[in-house]
Amino acid sequence: MEIAVLKNSGEDTGRKVTLADDIFGIEPNDHAIYLDVKQFLANQRQGTHKSKERAEISGSTRKIKKQKGTGTARAGSIKSPVFRGGGRVFGPKPRNYGFKLNKKLKALARKSAMTYKAKENSLMVLEDFSFEAPKTKDFVNVLNSLSVADKKTLFVVSNTDKNVALSGRNIQNAKVTTTDELSTYDVLNADKMLISESSVEKLQNLLK
């Protein structure tokens, strides 16, 4: 499929780029998308949760009452989980929530996500642009010119332009990423996906 290349002012440049059907026009695989997004979210978890078990509680180890004759259940330690202030039974421990996925499956997930964006007409190609200095105002002007200021927007560039990245980092609904760092989650989480002209070919070569 062909798509027009726009200027960052929103005007048509008169040029078009061809989006490969094996990247932007496949039969989407929802399960691959699910697994890739699940892995992405799992990797965001710190996994530093921890509670103390009875062996880690500070306190006396003496037997708190005699074994028999009290009329209540026997008890050998104040650190028992049945007492207030005692250790927790089977509490959370630090762990890594990450899991492995094959490269081909992750590529399929990204292709599927971008196919959905292409079908929804939520994909735009911009000619390469840069800012002379980091200015949030300049980035906002680009969003306004493209009529996407009120939408979650993902900018995909071939190489991270420091000024562009810094200009967009304080805008809540905008994110700038490179073709190498593009994730399925980012694609699906955005209402509009804007790809720089130079990154189209690089992205297609990356996912072949």
From TrEMBL:
One of its GO terms (molecular function) is rRNA binding. GO terms for biological process: translation. The keyword Metal-binding does not apply. The keyword ATP-binding does not apply. SUPFAM superfamilies: Ribosomal protein L4. GO terms for cellular component: ribonucleoprotein complex; ribosome. Part of the 50S ribosomal subunit. PANTHER family: 50S RIBOSOMAL PROTEIN L4 (PTHR10746), LARGE RIBOSOMAL SUBUNIT PROTEIN UL4M (PTHR10746:SF6). This is Large ribosomal subunit protein uL4. It comes from Roseivirga misakiensis.
